[in-house]
Amino acid sequence: MRATIKDIAEQVGVSKSLVSMYLNNHPLAERIADTTKRKIDEVVRNMDYQPSSMARSLRKGKTRTIGLVIARISSVYSSFYSETLLNELEKYDYQLLISLTRFNQENERKCLLNLINRQTDGILYGLYIDPEEPVPSFLKNYPLLLTYHPNPNYNTILADDRIPMQDVCELMREKGLKKIFSARLFYKTALPANSGIEISHHFWRDYKTNRELLEAVRAEKADVLELGSCQHAASFLNELAGEKDLPYILYPYGLPSDYFEHPKILGAISKPFQEMVSGQVKRIIEMVEEPKKEISHLHIPAKFMNPSELKKLYLEQLADPAYKVIVDERKITSPF
Question: Which residues are CB-contacts of 77 (< 8 A; sequence separation ≥ 6)?
C-alpha cells in the first residue's frame, strides 16, 4: 500500500500539517527543528514515500491536464492524432483527457462541461462552434483552443488554406470547372477575390446517404465536391461508381492512410500533421501558463497537391519512422 503523509506523521510523532509543510517547502518550515526534519527524511526514505503529483498540482491551482474534444477515436486519423498529442504533451509534463461526442451535437456541450468539471487546465476542441452563438458563461476566460473551424470569439490555430485555395482555383479554371460544394466555411473565406470560382456551403449531417449528397451536388450544379476525409471520399466514389458525371473530389490530407487513387480526385489540401500537433500543444500550454485576455488566431501553412504530388508524399510518409505505427499496425500497403 502506498505510504501517505498521515503514515509519515504517525511514524515521526508529529502532525500531518507539519509534515506537509516541510515536504512542500512552506516558508514556515524554517521553524521546524533540524532533528524533526532529519526524522521526516529518514521515514520518507524507509517508507519509499511518493508524493501525489495531482495533489501538488491542485494546490497550485493546476492539474497539468489538457482536455481533447473530438467526435470519435476509432478512425486511423483520430487515434493517431490523439496518441501524437499525448506524446507531445508529455514533453511538457502534461497529460491528455479525451471526451468523445460520437457525432451527437447534444454531447458537445456535455463534453466541454465534463472536462472543465474534471479540472482540466485547457481544452483542444476539434469541432464546430457557431460564430453567431454567444460564448457560454462557463467558457469565458477559460483556455479553449479551436483546432478545426474558424471562430472570431475563440482562440484558434488552423491550417492556412489561402494559398492552397489559389492553386485549387487555378486548376479548376484550367479544367473548366466553376463551382465547389463544400462543408467548410474557411474554404469560402480563403477563396481569392475575383477568382471566378463559386462555393456553396452545406453541412454533411443534412445528407443521410451518398446518394442524397450526390443529388444535392447536382442540384447546385457543382463541379467539385469537398469531403471531410479520405474515408468519406472513398465511400462516395466507390458506392456511386456506376454513376456518370460524378463531381471531382477535394479532401484534406494528413496521414498516409489518407491516400488513394481515383480519376475523379482533383487533389487534396495537405496539412503538415506533425507541425499542426506541436503547434496546438505549444499554444494551449501558453494559454494555460501565460493567460492573456486578447484572442489570437494562428495559422500553419497548408498546401494543395495534385494526385501525382500526393502519391509522392504518400511514399515518403511510408518510409518515415514517425508514421511506422500506422504503416505496421494498420498494414497500409494499398489503401483502396
Answer: 229, 254, 255, 257, 258
